[in-house]
Amino acid sequence: MSGTSWSQSGAGVTRSSVRPGVLSRLVGAVWSVEQAVEGLLVDHWTPNRIPDLSGKLALVTGGNSGIGLEVCRKLVENCATVLLVSRDKQRGEEAAAQIRASLMSQGGSGPGSGTISERIGRIVVLQADLLSLRDVQRLIGEVKRHTREAGGLHMLLCNAALFQPGAHAVSSEGLEQTLAVDYYSHVELTLGLLEELTRGSERGGGARVVLQASQAEAFGSLDFNNLKASRPPVGDKFTDSGMSAYGSAKLWMLMFAEELQRRLRAGGGAAARIDVFGVHPGLVDSPLMDKADTQRHLNAALLVMQNMFLGMPTWRGSLPALYALTEPSLAGKGFQYIGPNWFNLHMLGVRSPGSRLWRTGGPELRSRLFEETASLLQQLGHPPAHLPKPAAALAT
């Protein structure tokens, strides 16, 4: 484990590489013991168990760094075609080149045969700013062009996120920035690609939708009178684009995921074979933290420091998402919420969200959020292309 230190500067708390010190060596020893203990407690799933993904098409938002990059690497290694979505086209191309170079240097370790380049999948970089619903609509159109070749979309990972970016700010559509990127853009993207996922399910024996959540969902709240969080009144929790917005976005994402699964199952047909999962990576030393405004948000500064010393590497944080996207034995088992416990153990355990709202609201609350989210998107001029009916309506 490499040593890290933190410094307080004009940019707030940042990570920097230093010579390993006593603390980092101690943390490294604790990490080794933790892994040994986990090895005795759980039956490990590793990416070596990912099947041959030849002919499969995957879409990963936020694929240019961190967990998204690791997921893209493993999918390509196992012969999938990956649409890597990045806000910055150049950074996306650099990430794709990095993946190709690393796999070529390994000799193309995937299941394919032939030359090295034939033993790995293909990466296509798509640019999209998820802060803009209009740009998400454009992205959906681009993805559809690619799905025509592949016979549908087989895997969707909604991974891109903002984490405590700073002062309260809104998107061009008037949505608080964290909610816009972390929640609304992914709802629009998922619903906009349901037909492509259904075709992928029909021709490929199922499809997967995986939404990257966070243990911060425990701090989320829900006010149906303030779903946009665009004009925070005095005393409102959304006065900053901080932990309240981030936790709420992740909670809403899980609520959306479970309700979507209920509706897809109730509708029958190939769409019923789309499995929807929520995952969380645990405590990870991820580039996501580098973008947090640690001057404005004290808890962000504390989390950055905590992750530097105790966080897992990003490859390990990618395991829940990879497992949910690719493990054959999970077919038909959505909705599940998968991730480690608070001690970063049992990486692939099935969890129950920690939010009180999740426990007390029940299916009715999740269905209402689903409907009101779709209604808000319609009001903003971006009606969902495909809106599954409520399970109760289909039963009558």
Q: Judging from the principal axes of the Cα atoms, what is the shape?
A: globular
Would you report the number of β strands? 11
Quickly name the level 1 CATH class.
Alpha Beta
CATH architecture level-2 label: 3-Layer(aba) Sandwich
Order of helices and strands: EEHEHEHEHEEHHEEHEHHHEHH
The figure for the number of domains is 1
Query: In terms of per-residue confidence, which ranges show pLDDT below 50 for 5 or more consecutive residues?
Result: 1-20
Protein structure class: alpha/beta
Number of helices: 12
Helix content: 40-55%
Strand content: 5-15%
Structure description:
Helices cover 44% and strands 13% of the residues. The protein has 396 residues and is an alpha/beta fold. It has one domain: Rossmann fold. α3 links the parallel β4 (81-86) and β5. The N and C termini lie far apart (57 Å).
Short description:
The protein is built from twelve helices and eleven strands. It is an alpha/beta fold.
Q: Main traits of this protein?
A:
disordered N terminus; single chain; 44% helix; seven-stranded parallel sheet; 396 residues; NAD(P)-bd_dom_sf; oxidoreductase activity; alpha/beta; two-stranded antiparallel sheet; Rossmann fold; 13% strand; globular; 12 helices
Secondary-structure topology with pairs:
Blueprint: E1 4-9, E2 12-17, H1 22-41, E3 57-61, H2 66-77, E4 81-86, H3 89-105, E5 122-127, H4 133-150, E6 155-158, E7 166-167, H5 177-192, H6 194-204, E8 207-212, E9 240-241, H7 243-267, E10 274-279, H8 298-310, H9 314-317, H10 319-326, E11 336-338, H11 356-379, H12 391-395
Parallel strand pairs: 3-4, 3-6, 4-5, 6-8, 8-10, 10-11
Antiparallel strand pairs: 1-2, 7-9
Helix pairs in contact: 2-3, 4-5, 5-7, 7-11
Pfam families: adh_short (PF00106)
InterPro entries: NAD(P)-bd_dom_sf, SDR_fam
GO molecular function, one term: oxidoreductase activity
